[in-house]
Amino acid sequence: MDTISSKVNSALTRVEKKYGVLLVLYQRFEKTCRNIFAPASDNPERETMRSCWTMFLLAKGRVLQMEDDLVISFQLLLCTLELFIKRCPPDLLQPLYKSAIRKVQSPPTRTSRRSQSKAKSRPLEPEVDLQLLKTLCNENECNGEEVKNVYQTSFLAFLESLDSSKSPDFPQAKDLNQQYEDHYLKSRDIDGRLFFDGDETVLPSKLEILQEEKTPKKNLPDEEVLIPPQTPIRTVMTSIRDLRGDLTSNGDQPSNNLATYFKNCTVDPTQDVLKRLETVGQDFSQKFGETVGPHCVALGWQRFKLGVRLYYKIMEAMLKSEEKRLSVQNFSKLLNDATFHTSLLACALEVVMATYGESSFMTRGYNHAGAGNPVEKDLCFPWILDVVHLPALDFYKVIESFIKAEPTLSKDIVKHLETCENLIVERIAWSSQQQLDETSIIITWKEEGQKSAASTKQWT
């Protein structure tokens, strides 16, 4: 009976998460469309908006296997809006987007009749308008490079699957609706069209919407509001922007300081480090694509590269701290320990995925309220441990050192890592008979307050 209850609870929680993501996306869609389309008495833009929303739902359903991924879903929504805006009559657009549209067709030139007939019969290839996409991203606080990559790796593949993808005109609303109807009947999931139809069963009350988007109060009438109203999309986009900003100065290769630490070792670990990263990177991106969607492998590589930058940054901070504490520069034993590197890299990747909202304990992974049985986990911890083939206790050992070495980690990320830590000790580690003794020792350390204060003492 407990097993049935756990499965039912897992299914309900998953549906709730998908509903929440769809609701947030639709609310942002409506708000964005008000900024895109010029108001008109007969509302001609409503049918365009309906087709746009339906195409987005179809793209989301075909591109993503993990449809509750808010970030990639939102990026797909911006890609869909870009496609419709550039095909929309300029009179229907607000000035900002009217000026952002690039001329798709070049000025007319003299051509032969034979060439003209060939040109008429050749459909236009779908091509991203970078200036328009940049405008959309700026208005929605989204990283333009990431959205462009989603367009080129995922959205174009979706467009090619549509019969009308190469047409310069709007996709036929009837065809889009039928294709989404087929997808909906096959998946038996939430019908996203109900949001656009204003169905009361899926839309919250106006009071709830106002409360969610409430702007912080001002102390004085003339005072500017410094903090915009927080929404789920704005929150995650801000977190991503902060993470990328913190890693701007960190490259995909070891810094000069870190390279010096490597060279000072009795055995230089540089080649082993680079080889390990290449192998793990391929495994990570492939498994990311298998979980999220087959056209998302390149997005997995993007996540991995961010993780590598964070991995190098934390490692350098740890070594500087130990050099100051011990007055030594030769960390050969530590830097030639493959488990240390894998643990540190896994922790960095977990931070990246948690920042993107792809690893969350709210709805996936181990059910804290249940009997401890793992449910469908997607990218949620401990997914990363399976990818890098790392025992949970080795990951556990590096968490505290990782947090100490990166004081700029947000409170939410620190809480996420602490939850991973607790989950390992309370459940995951006990699932392996071979690790029971070590788990008992770690718990004893924690209870007696004897856990090392030095960032790398556990490894040296």
UniProtKB/TrEMBL annotation:
Q: Which residues form the Retinoblastoma-associated protein A-box domain?
A: 231-440
Q: Which GO terms describe its cellular component?
A: chromatin; Rb-E2F complex
Molecular function per GO: RNA polymerase II transcription regulatory region sequence-specific DNA binding
Q: Which domain of life is it from?
A: Eukaryota
Sequence ranges of Basic residues compositional bias? 111-121
Database matches in Pfam families: DUF3452, RB_A
SMART domains tied to this protein:
DUF3452 (SM01367), RB_A (SM01368)
Q: Name one GO biological process term.
A: neuron projection development
Annotated region Disordered: the residues are 104-126
Q: Which residues form the Retinoblastoma-associated protein N-terminal domain?
A: 1-87
User: PANTHER family attached here?
Assistant: RETINOBLASTOMA-ASSOCIATED PROTEIN (PTHR13742:SF36), RETINOBLASTOMA-ASSOCIATED PROTEIN RB -RELATED (PTHR13742)
User: What's the name of the protein?
Assistant: Retinoblastoma 1
Q: Which organism is it from?
A: Gasterosteus aculeatus aculeatus (three-spined stickleback)
